[in-house]
Amino acid sequence: MKHATETTLIPTVPDAFGQQGMLQYLWPTLARASLLLAAILCVFWARSHQSNDVFFRSSGEQLIRCASVLGRIVFFVQTDDRPPTGWQWSLARVPPIDPWEESIAKFVGVQLTVGPAELPTGSTRLRVRYRTIVIVLMIIPAIYSWQRYKKKFRTLPR
């Protein structure tokens, strides 16, 4: 009885009219975009320890603020009676102490605070560490690379 010594490949059947479909481009494009976004966020992560970038906008009813400070992004929404403005940017000093107390939420890297706990009435704050965002963004490229690695070595003769 003979055993096969080579791996046999079954050719994929193309779609109608010889097309492979758009899905063959979606996964690599998503992996590359995720990797690029992770690299950009690493730059902002390093910058957040030297300066505090704040983007904010007032709609007349609420103030929306996004700050990059001390290794995290902070989204803040509160009721506001200021006149409406477009998106604005400001640069501030980094606070000398970290106002985020040690907790499980800080370790995981995500904290949502709604209501008047330590915030003004009618406000919401979401803190997300850059580390957490970068780890989540690196999942897609890691899976894509693993699949390519397995596919490459599955087609080699043994």
State the main characteristics.
3 helices, 6 strands, 158 residues, alpha+beta, 35% helix
Q: What's the quick description here?
A:
The chain has helices at residues 23-47, 104-108, 130-154; strands spanning 52-58, 62-69, 72-79, 88-92, 110-114, 123-129.
Averaged pLDDT, please?
80
Strand content: 25-35%
Number of helices: 3
Low-confidence region ranges: none
Q: What would you say this structure looks like, in words?
A:
There is one protein chain. By secondary structure, the chain is an alpha+beta fold. 35% of the residues lie in helices and 25% in strands. The chain is built from three helices and six strands. It has helices at residues 23-47, 104-108, 130-154; strands at 52-58, 62-69, 72-79, 88-92, 110-114, 123-129. The protein has a six-stranded antiparallel beta sheet. A hairpin with a 3-residue loop joins strand 1 (52-58) and strand 2. Helix 1 packs antiparallel against helix 3. The radius of gyration is 24 Å and the shape is elongated. 6% of the residues are buried.
Fold topology:
Elements: H1 23-47, E1 52-58, E2 62-69, E3 72-79, E4 88-92, H2 104-108, E5 110-114, E6 123-129, H3 130-154
Antiparallel strand pairs: 1-2, 1-4, 2-3, 3-6, 5-6
